[in-house]
Amino acid sequence: MKILKKLVFAGLVLCVFLFAFNAKPIKANPADIWVPYNYPTIQAAINAANSGDIIHVVGGPYAPIVVNKTVSLIGEGEAIIDGNGLTDNIAVVNVTANQVSIKNFKIRNAENGYGIYLNDMSFCYLESNQIMNTYYGIFVDGREKGSSNIHIVDNNITNVACAVLLSNCSYSYILTNNVYVPMYGCGFKIVGLGESESRFNLISDNNIIGNQWTTGIHIDGPNNTICNNWVSNCSTGIKLFSAASSNNTIYHNNFINNTEQAYVHNWALNDKWNFDCSIGGNFWSNHITADKFSGKYQNQPGSDGICDTPYIIHGSNIDEYPLMGPCNRFEVQFGPIPSKQEISVISNSSISDFQMNTTQKTISFNVTGKTGIGFCRAGIPNVIVSGLWQNNYKVLVNNQEPLYIRNWTSGATTYIYFQYQHSTKKVTIIPEFPQNLIPLIFMVITTLIAAKAKKKHNKH
Fold first, then answer.
1. Residues 366, 369, 370, 371: is their CA dihedral positive or negative?
2. Upstream peptide bond of 326 is cis (omega within 30 degrees of 0)
3. CB 92 within 8 Å of CB 111
4. Out of 8, 81, 278, 329, which residue is the most buried by the measure of CB atoms under 10 Å away?
5. Helical H runs in 273-411?
6. Are 367 and 377 in contact (CB under 8 A)?
7. Burial of 395 (C-beta count, 10 Å sphere; 0-12/13-18/19+)
8. Is 408 inside a domain boundary?
9. Within 37-95, where are the H helices?
10. How many helical (H) and strand (E) elements, i.e. helices and strands, does the chain have?
11. Bridge-based pairing state of the strands 249-251 and 101-119
12. Alpha carbons 441 and 447: distance in angstroms, whole number
């Protein structure tokens, strides 16, 4: 028994020794480094940094950099990295490490180069940057080993030939960016080369403005989701380029005044251009038809914000439930433990000043249109409808009831459709006094009055 105990003890000691020998040091507290106060240049700060450090950058312009360590770069105030006319496919910011974060910079001036270039990288965050006067704004290049989990969020990318190019990159996010492409080129381009494909990427809530030589969104890969984008004034709004452009999901995008709204390759298969009749498809500015009916087959009485006739894209590619107006999406926090919820408003009016007040139990926004009848179709999660109004609510337009209103529930969402005369007006959704309580309250009041009268009678 003693020998067994000694062997167990020796084994434990050996395990601890091996763990200590192979364990990598973990930095508990990342250092904050300031440029130009601690180091005169960004590159000097990166060279001196340890993995996990945060580099704050003030002012500029600074020279192009190579980010070869897992660090966070944060621009403070107006921090500028200037390519000074870089050419020959050189990057202003060249990222060669994983888990790099770059936030709040002005990155500019690489005429034939890249604003930010990532080569076979993963889990990098590019957020709230202004990228201008480069050939490629952001190029995620995964042609050798593949890239993944790149987050491109809240950037303004202007005066470029291609705002964002993902090559052999998957599971990445392109969200809430503003893009202006004034030359021949593309807003967002997702491509796959060789055996690798760019798949399972999300392109959502972006605003892309182009011209007569620009493709808004170019997809050359399967299983991507493209939703809630505004694409306007391009030669082609969205292009499904090849047979690899299959099994993509495309909905709630607003394609406005594009010369060709959509191009689909003959061998691109099983792309989905809508959800069910409640959620709907996309808004096509050249397809505004009648809206007198609703339902799965658009043959039930009542308007629902969806065109009564489908939009034919190419061959079997059909948007069965095209929207009657652009789709606006608003994210709110709601619940005892606040969680993100999404409210959509489809309307032929311009929507502004959207607010949800949980104290006053209201949702409000402004609608603006020149002439004629305006409409809104608000899609509100049931958890909000129940939590704010106990499923009893009233819609007011300038404190008056709408010209027409109907509502329905589908899945986890309540839809409210209503019409009004166009001008600038305020829409408010407020709690409505539950009608089914009126008889009960009347009965209680009557009982109290009778009891009081009886009590008074007994005194006499």
1. negative
2. no
3. no
4. 81
5. 382-389
6. no
7. buried
8. yes
9. 42-48
10. 4, 37
11. unpaired
12. 10
Contact call for residues 160 and 187 (beta carbons, < 8 A): no
Q: 13 phi and psi, to 5 degrees? A: -60, -40
- For CA atoms 385, 390, 392, 397, give the dihedral sign: negative
Which structural domain range is residue 206 located in? 32-280
Closest by CA position to 81, among listed 52, 43, 46: 43
Please give the helix or strand (H or E) that residue 377 lies within, else none: strand 373-381
| Residues 105, 73 contacting (CB under 8 angstroms) | yes
Reply yes or no: is the peptide bond before residue 61 cis, omega within 30 of 0. yes
Question: Does residue 62 lie within any of the structural domains?
Answer: yes
Rounded CA gap, 353 and 350, in Å?
A: 10
The model's pLDDT over 29-50, given as tens digits with 9 standing for 90+, comes to 789 999 999 999 999 999 999 9
Specify whether 261 is located in the same domain as 362.
Answer: no
**385 by DSSP, 3-state: which?**
helix
Q: What is the pLDDT of residue 316?
A: 86
Q: Dihedral through CA 88, CA 90, CA 92, CA 98, nearest 10?
A: 160
Burial class (CB in 10 A: 0-12, 13-18, 19+), 268: buried
Question: Which residues have C-beta within 8 Å of that of residue 429, sequence separation ≥ 6?
Answer: 362, 363, 364, 378, 380, 389, 393, 394, 395, 396, 416
- Read off the pLDDT of each residue in 50-58 and give the average, rounded to a whole number: 97
Residue 54 confidence class, pLDDT cut points 50, 70, 90: very high
Give the CATH number for residue 181.
2.160.20.10
Q: Which amino acid is at 152?
A: I
Q: For residue 446, is pLDDT > 70?
A: no
- Per-residue model confidence as pLDDT tens digits over 308-326: 999 999 888 999 999 999 9
Mean pLDDT of all residues in 203-230: 96
Q: Which amino acid is at 277?
A: C
Please state whether 243 falls in left (phi above 0), alpha (psi between -120 and 50) or beta: alpha
Q: Which of 206, 195, 192 is nearest to 245 (CA)?
A: 192
CA distance 345 to 7: 70
Last-in-domain residue among 280, 310, 342: 280
Q: Which residue has the tokens 């491509």?
A: 191
How many domains is the chain built from? 2
Q: Which two tokens stand for residue 48?
A: 């001196």
d(CA 312, CA 319): 7
343: tokens are: 């409210």
Asked if residue 378 is part of any domain, the answer here is yes
The first and second tokens of residue 65, run together, are: 């950099």
Residue 422 to residue 426: CA distance in whole angstroms: 11
